[in-house]
Amino acid sequence: MGTENKSETKPYDRPSELKAFDETKSGVKGLVDSGITKVPRIFIQPQDSPDRVTTTPRNIGLSIPIIDLDGVDKDPIKYKDMVDKIRDASETWGFFQVVNHGIPESDMEEIKNGVSRFFDQDNEIRKQYYTRDATKPVVYNTNFDLFTGIAANWRDTVYCIMSPNPPKPEELPAACREIQMKYSKQIMGLGCTLFKLLSEGLGLKPNHLLDLECAEGLAMIFQYYPPCPEPELTIGAGKHSDNSFLTVLLQDQIGGLQVLHQNQWVDIPPTPGALIVNIGDFLQMMSNDKYKSIEHRVLSNHLGPRISVASFFTTGPRPSSKLYAPIQEMLSEENMPKYCAFTVKEYTDHFRTKGLNGVSPLLHFKL
Ligand code: OGA
Ligand code: NI
């Protein structure tokens, strides 16, 4: 009998296979670089998983709104229109794209190039950043929930908290440090604009969400989805909602991002120059479910690598004592609070322990 069959007759020791994979410190990219032609079983979605790619119907006729931010600071009539469009999108889709957002396309290209350079550099240099210690300034690993998830995702990740107290430039990988510092400042600026528009959409004064410190923390995540030999068996990022106030996502031209809308998966097609914005769990909770933090996922693909840069407004796992709860000004006899108060850290810890299992961590905090 050949060696191939031997591995099939051996009992499946998942924990040790996960450990061996983690110890390579080379992630999914390392597997692909080694020339594998089959998806190892630690990545295979069980038949009954919500992330079997065929489980839910796909709607190919719909797409998320595209909102033009041109003139946001200058034209009050356009501004009012943007508030309305963003509110509608946040209530129905939880997702929209923005164009003319002020971040030059050349910088958007350069940050994706920086991610490519990080992953393409010598394995030994990349490995120096590999860790599961969330207190490190740069956390490069694969599957933050590798040991708790049902099936590993076909994805590697670099995580950095860029605000408050950004890492020293020399702590960031040389492959991307310059553009990462620049791009994170640009995203902070765009975030301020978006939080003002979103505040007004809730009938609050423009600075309400900013005063609640929604834009204090920025966690930046580089997602790297290597090409996959059997994309139907696994998934790039399993169904989840974002554990942030708000997320701004830059995706490349490969595609595969989908959002759940009326129980159907809807593609979010790559749109040159656009950034994707989505409501996170915190804004859903603070708006008492008016804005929706909607589940989304990323399919894996024969083509790749696919690169995305996700900017999460949140302080993540950093110690925090500020409690967040449904916004008082929005509550009434007819709109009683649906959630108890919690800190960003409590929520993040819960999210991390639970992993991307398709169940909203918000349910844990419902009254
Ligand atoms: C995320 C996410 C989508 C993508 O990082 O939370 O949903 O396209 N990313 O990488
Ligand atoms: Ni997400």
TrEMBL record:
Assigned keywords, A-Z: Iron, Metal-binding, Oxidoreductase, Vitamin C
Give the residue ranges for region: Disordered: 1-20
Q: Which GO terms describe its biological process?
A: coumarin biosynthetic process; response to molecule of fungal origin
Q: Which domain of life is it from?
A: Eukaryota
**Molecular function as annotated in GO:** 2-oxoglutarate-dependent dioxygenase activity; L-ascorbic acid binding; metal ion binding
User: What PANTHER family does the record point to?
Assistant: 1-AMINOCYCLOPROPANE-1-CARBOXYLATE OXIDASE HOMOLOG 1 (PTHR10209:SF791), OXIDOREDUCTASE, 2OG-FE II OXYGENASE FAMILY PROTEIN (PTHR10209)
The record's family statement is: Belongs to the iron/ascorbate-dependent oxidoreductase family.
Q: What is this protein called?
A: 1-aminocyclopropane-1-carboxylate oxidase-like protein 3
